[in-house]
Amino acid sequence: MLPGPTPGTPEAPPGARGFAVVDVEATGRSPWRHRVVEIAVVLLDERLRPEAEFATLLDPLGPVGPTHVHRIHQADVEGAPRFREIAPRLLELLAGRVLVGHHVSCDHGFLDREFARIGVALPPVPLLCTMRLARAHLPQARGHGLAACVEAAGLGWYPAHTALGDARVTAELLRHCVGVPSCPPDDWAGPLREAARVPWPRLGRARSRSSGTPVPLVRREAPYGPWLPGVPAPAVLLTERGAMGSTA
Predict the structure, then answer these.
(1) Using CB atoms within 10 A of its CB, is residue 231 exposed (0-12), middle (13-18) or buried (19+)?
(2) What structural domains does the chain harbor?
């Protein structure tokens, strides 16, 4: 679980709901031609304290794409929800929050297109990019990819290219970057003020399928680092199956 707020974190503006740290794994690089195959959301309150998590594999209604990158196999998404089935829950999670990601425009682009496919227009949600923050406040990083920034911040091993692993460590990277002296409060407090004013659409929750069975969630998770020197990080990803209705 993520640690507490960084000492000295300034007060958030009134009405702020906090941050939604998002990561998606997709069947390819183009939001217009490819689909989301896994999504994770880590919720932080206005003082960067952890609130909840949501994660699931998704049925992309076609090939899962680059298995050598995201390690998702076609069999893994059998029985997984379609995007439209989790869309109402995602809108609830994102409403009133700043959308955070590492290269967040990419994650936002995929979300925007997935919602557009079901006829929902996302509002102009404020974005906060940890890659941009790292460029400004992690000058020692050897690169600006997530792995290089995590290493420079001393955050340890994480299960890369799993949506939940990437979202969790991005949340930690956010906390690290806003806690350094060179990061002005308005780098993150400004987006909080904007997010609190954005009206969000609502959809009726899809609690069950036409068969009457609950909408399933299929969650990949691996033990979270950091690990002691010389101890190999676990390579096996576990898949847990649950049902819609909980962010935990």
Answers:
(1) exposed
(2) 19-226+233-243 (3.30.420.10)
Q: Which helix (H) or strand (E) holds 220?
A: strand 216-221
- The vertex-110 CA angle with 104 and 113, nearest 5°, equals 135
Cα(222)–Cα(199) distance, integer angstroms: 36
Cβ pair 187, 178 in contact under 8 A: yes
The DSSP symbol for 235 reads -
Which strands form 19-26's sheet, in the order they lie side by side?
50-57, 36-44, 19-26, 98-101, 127-129
Dihedral angle computed from the Cα positions of residues 108, 110, 114 and 119, in that order, rounded to the nearest 10 degrees: 50
Q: Cα(193)–Cα(159) distance, rounded to whole angstroms?
A: 32
Q: What is the mean pLDDT of each run of 10 residues along the chain (248 residues)?
A: 44 72 97 97 94 95 94 92 94 95 98 97 95 93 93 86 93 93 80 90 72 82 60 58 61
**In contact, 117 and 167? CB cutoff 8 Å:** no
Please tell me whether the peptide bond between 66 and the residue prior to it is cis, using omega within 30 degrees of 0: no
pTM of structure: 0.87
